[in-house]
Specification:
Layout: H1 5-23, H2 27-37, E1 44-48, H3 54-62, E2 67-72, H4 75-84, E3 90-94, E4 107-113, H5 121-134, E5 135-146, H6 151-168, H7 184-193, E6 198-205, E7 208-214
The structure holds S-adenosylmethionine.
C-alpha cells in the first residue's frame, strides 16, 4: 500500500537518522563526501528535501557559519533538524520544492540527498531549470540519489509505480512514496537539458550516486 509522501516520512522521523546511517548503503560516506564537495567560498546554500539534515550535519562540521535555506514537505523532519542545530542560520520552509520559489542568482551552492528518486523526469526537468536560475554564476548543484545502471531497471520501477498508483486510484499530481530511480546516464542528461554546463559523477557506492552539476 503506497503512503502519502509526508505521512510516510512523518511516521518514520524518529528512526530516520539511524536507518539512513546504518541501513542504506553508501549514505554514511555520501554525507561526508557531499560536505567535502561544497565549494570553500560558499556562503549561501539551498538544500532540497533536507529532511532531518543528515547532509547538513556534515556540512556544518566544515562550514559552521554557512547560511542555509532548507525546503521539505514534512514538518516533523524539519523539527528534528532544528532541534539538532538550534543556533544555526537556517530558514526552514515546510513546502513542496516544485512549488516554492527559490529566487534568482541567490545561492552559491545547492544540494539534495536521497529525495529526487520519487519523481518523474518531466517534473524534475522544470525543477532543475528553476534550481539552475537560483544559483549564482559559477554555482554548483550537488545531487546524491538512488540511481540505477540500466534502462530496464528504471522502466521496471516506473511501471510498477504506475500500476500501484492505478490500483489505489491515486490522482496524477499527488505525492505518494515510491522509489522510481533513474539511470545515472538519464539523470545526468536531464541536468544538462536543464542548462547545467557540465555534469560529473563523483561517487557511487551500491546505488547511492553523486553528481556535481555546474551552472
Ligand atoms: C529520504 S528523505 C532525505 C532527507 C535528507 N536529505 C537525508 O538524506 O537524510 C527525503 C525527504 O524529501 C522530502 N520530500 C519529498 N518530496 C518533496 C517535495 N516535493 N518537496 C519538498 N520535500 C520533499 C521528504 O519529506 C523527506 O524528508
Amino acid at each position: 500500500m503506497l503512503e502519502a509522501m509526508s505521512d510516510f516520512f512523518t511516521a518514520r522521523t524518529e528512526m530516520y537518522d539511524e536507518h539512513m546511517l546504518t541501513e542504506v548503503e553508501g549514505c554514511k560516506e555520501g554525507y561526508k563526501k557531499m560536505a567535502s564537495l561544497v565549494p570553500k567560498e560558499t556562503e549561501t546554500l539551498l538544500d532540497l528535501g533536507c529532511g532531518t539534515g543528515l547532509e547538513l550535519d556534515e556540512i556544518f562540521r566544515l562550514y559552521p557559519d554557512i547560511k542555509v535555506v532548507g525546503i521539505d514537505l514534512t514538518q516533523s523532519m524539519l523539527d528534528k533538524l532544528r532541534q539538532k542545530h538550534p543556533t544555526k542560520e537556517m530558514r526552514l520552509v515546510c513546502g513542496d520544492y516544485f512549488q516554492e520559489p527559490f529566487g534568482v542568482n541567490v545561492f552559491d551552492c545547492a544540494v539534495s540527498f536521497q529525495t529526487m528518486h520519487h519523481f518523474p523526469k518531466d517534473k524534475k526537468l522544470s525543477l532543475y531549470k528553476k534550481l539552475r536560475e537560483s544559483l549564482k554564476d559559477g554555482g554548483e548543484y550537488i545531487e546524491c540519489d538512488y540511481m540505477v545502471l540500466t534502462q530496464a531497471e528504471e522502466d521496471h520501477w516506473f511501471s510498477e509505480n504506475e500500476r500501484l498508483r492505478r490500483e489505489q486510484g491515486i490522482v496524477d499530481d499527488e505525492f505518494y512514496h515510491y522509489d522510481t530511480p533513474c539511470t545515472v546516464y538519464n539523470q545526468a542528461e536531464l541536468l544538462k537539458k536543464a542548462g547545467f554546463s557540465s555534469v560529473e559523477q563523483v561517487f557511487r557506492v551500491e546505488n547511492t550516486t553523486m553528481l556535481v552539476a555546474k551552472k
